[in-house]
Design brief:
Blueprint (H helix, E strand, L loop, with lengths): L1 E6 L2 H10 L7 E6 L9 E2 L7 H10 L4 E4 L2 H5 L2 H7 L4 E2 L3 H8 L1 H11 L6 E4 L2 H11 L3 E5 L8 E4 L2 H13 L10 E5 L7 E6 L4 E9 L2 E3 L3 E4 L5 E2 L7 H12 L3
Parallel strand pairs: 1-2, 1-4, 2-3, 4-5
Antiparallel strand pairs: 6-9, 7-8, 7-9, 10-11, 11-14, 12-13
Helix pairs in contact: 7-8
């Protein structure tokens, strides 16, 4: 098989490393890849958001399978476009990728399907959002609706911090159109855990749990980032909790 891995981060490096261990894989390309990936795959200078160029490359090189790492091309419909051309690709279509691409969409589906989630309200107006913050008080969490490279979530200890977050998202437009709407939700204390699963829309196969560390400085200080590091499995999720997450969150969604 010839495999194309799209993306340039640590996630894609891990994917390339694992895919390279398969005896069925003869050649791996990565677009655009990174310095670490270069030792395992041929890197190709194509922007992950240039879906047409990636399609052309996959067709020209007779790629058997494309694996997509980043969220943006998934939200932009890369899977839909590859499938139209009869090209094999691994990842959710644009409709399903909205779960990642819109926090409003994801939270409203959780509410509809009875999935446990922090209480929340949605706003597309700055003044209404600020009025709600004054009424609810702090601590409180402010989230830009769309993709923001992991930087669109503000855990605010005070109302002043919450006000600054609204200004950053909705007035200064730090995240562009991703800030057209905000989710304001209750602040729940505890350890963050991620569980990822592979699904065909009916069945799912959960992978190991992990814990991501988002704050830029040690001891959970500073703003959120796309991730300063992670480890797996996360001991905070034991066997019973793991099964509970699958049954109460994943299957309903």
């Amino acid at each position: 098989m010839k495999v194309l891995v799209i993306g340039s981060g640590g996630r894609e490096h891990a994917l390339v490393w694992k895919i390279a261990r398969s005896r069925r894989v003869k050649e791996i390309f990565s677009a655009p890849g990174n310095g670490g990936i270069e030792s395992l795959a041929k890197t190709v200078d194509i922007n992950p958001e240039n879906i047409k160029a990636l399609q052309d490359f996959a067709r020209r090189e007779k790629i058997d399978l494309t694996v997509v790492g980043p969220e943006t091309p998934l939200v932009n419909g890369i899977v839909d476009e590859f499938k139209k051309e009869g090209l094999r690709i691994f990842g959710p279509d644009s409709r399903t990728a909205r779960l990642e691409g819109s926090k409003v969409f994801a939270k409203e589906l959780m509410r509809e399907f009875g999935v446990p989630t922090a209480d929340f309200e949605v706003f597309d107006n700055k003044d209404a959002a600020l009025s709600f913050i004054r009424k609810k008080g702090a601590p409180i969490v402010i989230k830009a609706d769309g993709l923001a490279a992991g930087k669109g979530v503000f855990v605010c200890a005070t109302q002043q911090e919450a006000k600054k977050a609204i200004e950053e998202i909705m007035v200064k437009r730090a995240f562009g159109d991703s800030g057209n709407k905000v989710v304001i939700e209750e602040c729940i204390q505890g350890e963050e855990v991620s569980i990822i699963a592979i699904s065909d829309g009916e069945d799912l196969a959960p992978l190991a749990s992990s814990q991501d560390h988002k704050r830029i400085f040690d001891h959970d200080k500073g703003p959120n980032t796309g991730g300063m590091g992670a480890y797996s499995p996360a001991p905070v999720v034991n066997g019973e909790r793991f099964v509970e997450a699958i049954n109460k969150i994943m299957y309903p969604m």
